[in-house]
Write a structure and sequence with these properties.
323 residues; alpha/beta; Spore Coat Polysaccharide Biosynthesis Protein SpsA, Chain A; 9 helices; binds uridine-5'-diphosphate; binds manganese (II) ion; glycoprotein; Nucleotide-diphossugar_trans; golgi apparatus; transmembrane helix; signal-anchor
């Protein structure tokens, strides 16, 4: 009898031991999986940030983007913002062709985390200079008002930080005109960073001026002799806006350098550059002007016939949505 009780007791104890073991095991493994989840979140965050260089190196590059409201605007600016995210030395000066800044553009800056290295301005093109409905896009200059507004902001900003002694030694920085529809490689900004104080850098631009590539022509010593442009090669600087950047000290010492409504079509680049440099003094970049790191792409205007039909019935596909 006693033996039987002892046996049962043993079974009970063994049973209890197993239950306790399972209980603690489940507790500890739950703790572990909680930890794992936390680690996964941190890893995900690190993984995402790993793609984002967050250390600014080299001089600041002020990228000037004129932009205007149209169906593709958010797509264009999102594309650009993601390039700029990858290059911490870029400060984005975005100038809307509008009376006031828009929430659409503010949202792009917020979503891309660029609020702290951008400024959102507005400058409306005067109506007499604005393209109308079916005007071909070359009829009137585009971006003049916006780029001049950006230049004014940059000059004031640089003077303010210089006077406040914020940059020690006096900050070298660069200005690049970055239209919202072109395609930019992040490598282009490594090249821009090489521009020396007092210099204007130049490089090839793909798909522009009726050519696969418009590029500076160099002599054997690497001096810029001229350009291969087919369109209006008689221009003093026959190159595209995307094909050069300026050391900002030149802009401070030459306050009259800017864009103009008064010049012939295709002469905006020459208009600003004639104040700043001569062809032979330009600094060739992108492996002796042998590489294409920017393309003058143009986005097709989307056909929105069905949307227009919807609007006639007072409806829209994007009701309450920003597209
Ligand atoms: N742009 C503008 N207002 C306009 C037309 C154009 O601010 O009415 C901007 C546009 O967003 C772009 C730049 O000016 O950043 C040059 O315009 P576009 O790309 O149409 O010129 P293209 O490529 O034909 O030289
Ligand atoms: Mn364009």
């Amino acid at each position: 009898m006693n033996q039987e009780i002892r046996l049962r007791l043993k079974h009970l104890l063994a049973f209890l031991a197993i239950v306790l073991f399972l209980f603690f095991y489940s507790l500890s493994s739950r703790g572990c999986s909680g930890e794992q989840e936390e680690q996964a979140v941190v890893a995900e965050q690190n993984g995402r940030d790993a793609f984002l260089p967050n250390h600014k190196t080299g001089p600041t590059i002020y990228a000037v983007t004129p932009t205007y409201a149209r169906p593709v605007q958010k797509a264009e600016l999102t594309r650009l913002s993601h390039v700029i995210r990858l290059v911490p030395s870029v400060f984005w000066v975005i100038v809307e062709d509008a009376e006031k800044t828009s929430t659409l553009v503010t949202n792009v800056l917020k979503r891309s985390g660029l609020e702290n290295r951008s400024v959102q301005l507005s400058a409306k093109t005067p109506t007499n200079f604005k393209l109308q409905g079916k005007d071909p896009n070359w009829l009137k200059p585009r971006g003049v008002e916006q780029r001049n507004t950006a230049l004014k902001w940059i000059r004031q900003h640089l003077k303010r930080s210089r006077d406040a002694g914020e940059t020690e030694p006096p900050g070298h920085s660069l200005v690049y005109f970055m239209d919202d529809d072109n395609t930019y490689s992040t490598e282009l900004f490594d090249e821009i960073a090489k521009i020396e104080p007092g210099k204007v850098g130049v490089w090839p631009v793909g798909l522009v001026g009726g050519l696969m590539v418009e590029k500076p022509v160099l002599n054997r010593d690497g001096l810029v002799l001229g350009f291969n442009s087919a369109w209006k090669p008689e221009r003093p600087f026959p190159l595209d806006m995307a094909g050069f950047a300026i050391s900002s000290d030149l802009l401070l010492s030459t306050p009259e350098a800017q864009f103009s409504y008064e010049v012939e079509r295709g002469y905006q680049e020459s208009e600003i550059l004639r104040h700043l440099t001569i062809v032979h003094d330009m600094q060739p970049l992108a492996s002796g002007c042998k590489e294409v790191l920017v393309w003058h792409t143009r986005t097709e205007t989307p056909k929105l016939d069905a949307e227009k039909a919807l609007q006639k019935t007072n409806k829209k596909s994007n009701d309450g949505m920003e597209v």
